[in-house]
Amino acid sequence: MAATFTAQMSRRAATGGWRLYVARLDGQSHWPEQDLGRWAAVPTVQQRSRAVAALGYVLTDDTDWEWTEDSAILGDPSSAVVLIASATVREATE
Fold first, then answer.
1. Where are the domains positioned within the chain?
2. Whole-prediction pTM
3. In sequence order, what are the beta bridge partners of 71?
């Protein structure tokens, strides 16, 4: 069975741009990252899938994007909300 990883997408507070990265917890020091640009709306599922593919990964067959909410300032519930999307991915095979 191929190893799986978590792709996450969040909006950068400083620029308002969306970024997608693959969280590699297997000892790699660099996590692959794709800048999705500045969008007023959340990038579509298709745009997210293309960004995952550009990094050399594909969504696993049984995954959906899940959303979680965090605060911009750790432990401060009055700070701005940060939305993070995540999905399970695996390395693409030729």
1. 4-91
2. 0.83
3. 81
